[in-house]
Amino acid sequence: ENVRGRDVFLVQPTSPPVNENLMELLIMIDACQRASAQRITAVVPYYGYARQDRKDQPRVPITAKLVANLITKAGTDRILTLDLHVDQIQGFFDIKVDHLFAAPVIIDYFRKKKLDNLTVLSPDVGGLRRARAYARALKVPLAIVDKRRPTANEAEIIHIVGEVKGRQILIIDDMVDTGGTLLAAVNILMEKGAVGVYAACTHPVLSGNAYQKIENSPLKELVVTDTIPLDLSKSTDKIKVLSVAPLLGEAIKRIHQNKSVSSLFYIK
């Protein structure tokens, strides 16, 4: 297909296998750039290595910045992505960034469920802003988990701030990896009298035995999006997948037509 002088959108999540998918993206960018594409937009629904966004220990890399450099140097003009682990990653790029949120898709799903006595809960302080936006949109109370991480992928829950007894809880996060933090919160919530716990995230990393742990847990439902393909051989009926394709499609159309995408950022 001839791309000379064309507006090219390369859709490639950097999900597992992360290195392989990232390399494919870089090669496609280089190929389009050398084929004289007028503009190249990398559409990256899931931005891999996003959690390595700072040097919090000696002799560790800031891989989120390195990946941003690689994508930029390959010849990309713009990046379109969803729910970065932290908003500041946008500043790692020296090109234009459109950072969308899956919240409108997830909120619409839970509005239609019409859960009674619902409380939105953030699993940590870092996700409080996101959870507050969900609580405001759903017009329900907000709670938060106070926790600390002794080691990577392991969290110790100290206590829960907010009323959860007799209520249905919706845990909001940007991603679920091993499921350890999520399911620890679910167990604590049930012990404190919650009548049911749901969870929602944009990126279902679901590494290790996460599928099995979710299936065997008291969690009623985990709602995710299709930014990362699920392993269908392991998947469980407790996981509900929502599509963000219409959201990304609308953003791509507006970018191509040089129209504003600002309205897509807002949670209504």
Automatic annotation (TrEMBL):
Domain Ribose-phosphate pyrophosphokinase N-terminal: 1-75
Biological process terms in GO annotation: 5-phosphoribose 1-diphosphate biosynthetic process; purine nucleotide biosynthetic process
A Pfam entry, by short name: Pribosyltran_N
UniProt-listed InterPro entries: Pribosyltran_N, PRTase-like, PRTase_dom, Rib-P_diPkinase
GO cellular component annotations of the record: cytoplasm; ribose phosphate diphosphokinase complex
Enzyme Commission number, as recorded: 2.7.6.1
GO molecular function: ATP binding; kinase activity; magnesium ion binding; ribose phosphate diphosphokinase activity
Swiss-Prot/TrEMBL catalytic activity: D-ribose 5-phosphate + ATP = 5-phospho-alpha-D-ribose 1-diphosphate + AMP + H(+)
Keywords attached to this entry: ATP-binding, Kinase, Magnesium, Metal-binding, Nucleotide biosynthesis, Nucleotide-binding, Transferase
Enzyme class, broadest EC rank: transferase
Positions in coiled-coil regions: none
SMART domains the record matches: Pribosyltran_N (SM01400)
Name the UniProt record assigns to this protein: ribose-phosphate diphosphokinase
